[in-house]
Amino acid sequence: MRTANPAMKAFLDPQLLDRPAAASMTFGGTIAKTGILLGLCFTTATMAWQYMQGAPTGQGMIAVLGSAIAGLVVGLIVSFAPRTAPILAPVYALLQGAFVGFLSWVIPQHFNVPPGIVVQAMFLTFGIAAAVLLAFSLGLVRLSGTAMKVVVVATVGVGLYYALGMLLNMLGVGIVQLGWEAGWLGIGFSLFVVVLASLNLVLDFQFIEAGVTNKAPRYMEWYGAFGLLVTLVWLYIEVLRLLAKFNKR
Q1: Which of 46, 74, 205, 249 has the greatest number of C-beta atoms within 10 Å?
Q2: Beta bridge partners of 100
Q3: DSSP state of 23
Q4: Residue 85 to residue 73: CA distance in whole angstroms
Q5: Which residue(s) pair with 217 in the sheet?
Q6: What gap in Å lies between CA 9 and CA 206, rounded to an integer?
């Protein structure tokens, strides 16, 4: 098995799997902890969004980059050291919340659309996540080995495309970035990425299920919740951009 979400790779560690634990992780416990992380994320997202309403544009962009870099650093630590998840996953959620709040202000401003789409994007994201979880629980959705590879390759490709676009932007090279393009090509790209992020949720659930089946330690619930938060934040941002593009049209 492979995963496109680096936060889930620890479930492939042979030292974690097939090892009895006095207190093993459960699927329900992982979902509950995901709810806690989402609550923390929502709190700082709301605070950041309110802050952005009165902040100068330049200061706002510095805040976006600052929260993104800080979140990336903490996220990498958790990814490489799963035992830190019970402590650092909540910290990551708070930092990602700030990042989400800043972007929730920047995206509608960029496309010049009403800020009300933020609420629509939030409900649509939770709706997609709930539908995927229900379908997964009923056994209706599973990804085969080949499908997993396709999702992983596509996800890595999108990530590299975004990273290259940001790098060229920082170097002053102006290129059309489909993620920020409101034309039909940009809308098509966003639709594709939303579907891809949704498929990554399925992958995340499968790896959490593997951890439960193999009696991974209880602290891996926090690690699984951290991985789900990574995907959910990505899904929300892509849904928000997609709705902004449709409103722009």
Answers
A1: 205
A2: none
A3: S
A4: 13
A5: 24
A6: 12
SS (HEC) of 168-234:
HHHCCCCCCCHHHCCCHHHHHHHHHHHHHHHHHHHHHHHHHHHHHHCCCECCHHHHHHHHHHHHHHH
Contact 237, 103 (CB under 8 A): yes
Contact between 92 and 228 under an 8 Å Cβ cutoff? The reply is no
**Considering Cα of 187, then 188, then 192, then 195, what sign does the dihedral take?**
positive
What single DSSP character describes residue 12? G
Which amino acid, 80? Answer: F
- The tokens for 127 are 């709706």
Per DSSP, the three-state class of 24 is: strand
pTM: 0.86
CA distance 152 to 196: 9
For 48, other C-beta atoms within 10 Å of its C-beta total 23
- pLDDT tens series, the chain, 249 aa: 445 555 555 655 545 544 554 578 999 999 999 999 999 999 999 998 888 887 666 666 777 778 888 988 999 999 999 999 999 999 999 999 999 998 898 888 888 888 889 999 999 999 999 999 999 989 898 898 889 999 999 999 998 888 887 777 767 766 667 777 778 888 999 999 999 999 999 999 999 999 998 889 999 999 999 999 999 999 999 999 999 998 876
Token duo for residue 204: 């995340």
